[in-house]
Amino acid sequence: MLTPEPTATNATVVVKVGLTDLAAEIQAGRHTFFVDEPETVGGHDQGPTPYDLLLSALGACTAITVRLYATRKSWPLEGIEVRLRHQRVHRLDCDKCEQAGEMLEEVQKELRLLGPLSAEQKQRLHIIADKCPVQKTLTSGALRVVTVVVE
Questions:
Q1: Which of 37, 44, 48, 55 could be joined to 84 by an S-S link, Cβ 3.0–4.6 Å?
Q2: Whether the Cβ atoms of residue 35 and residue 50 lie closer than 8 Å to each other
Q3: How many whole angstroms separate alpha carbon 31 and alpha carbon 19?
Q4: Radius of gyration of the chain (CA)
Q5: Could you give the CA distance from residue 112 to residue 83 in angstroms, rounded to a whole number?
């Protein structure tokens, strides 16, 4: 299998989990960090959970996208805070909630824009916040994950 040259968008991430531990060591470029599960589900709580990382990626992308846009427009944005929560919710008026596909994954994203921004600037930044590349990937429905077993 040919592997494309690593770039900012296709760099390889390596995740390793041992024989009994749920903690994962992650190597992303020159950065190493750990992900784990809470003690209540058998982990040791040595790092954020996989869903924490997913929300972190979305939050960071949102904040960076908003920052880039405000800077390009020379708007007085002094800081950005993004607060995220993930939950599974039943579809409204669900008669068959136990069947596959009857639950929806939902991320609630709160955006705090700091600085003397006008109402129009805040509204525009709200729109821009939903255009970050990670959010587009998560919501597009077009993401394909291809898994192969290698020796």
A1: 55
A2: yes
A3: 23
A4: 19
A5: 8
Q: Which of 80, 53, 54 is nearest to 65 (CA)?
A: 80
Q: What is the pTM of this model?
A: 0.82
Contact 62, 135 (CB under 8 A): yes
Q: Which residue has the tokens 């950065």?
A: 31
Other Cβ atoms within 10 Å of 147 Cβ, number: 4
CB of 109 within 8 A of CB of 84? yes
Q: How far apart are CA 11 and CA 125, in angstroms?
A: 29
Query: In sequence order, what DSSP letters do the residues of the chain get, joined into one string?
Result: ---PPP-TTT--EEEEE-SS---EEEEETTEEEEE---GGGT----S--HHHHHHHHHHHHHHHHHHHHHHHTT----EEEEEEEEEEEEPTT-S-TTSTT-EEEEEEEEEEEESS--HHHHHHHHHHHTT-HHHHHHHSS----------
Sign, CA dihedral 66-68-74-79, equals positive
Tell me the mean pLDDT per 10 residues along the chain, length 151: 52 89 93 94 92 95 98 98 88 59 81 98 97 93 86 88
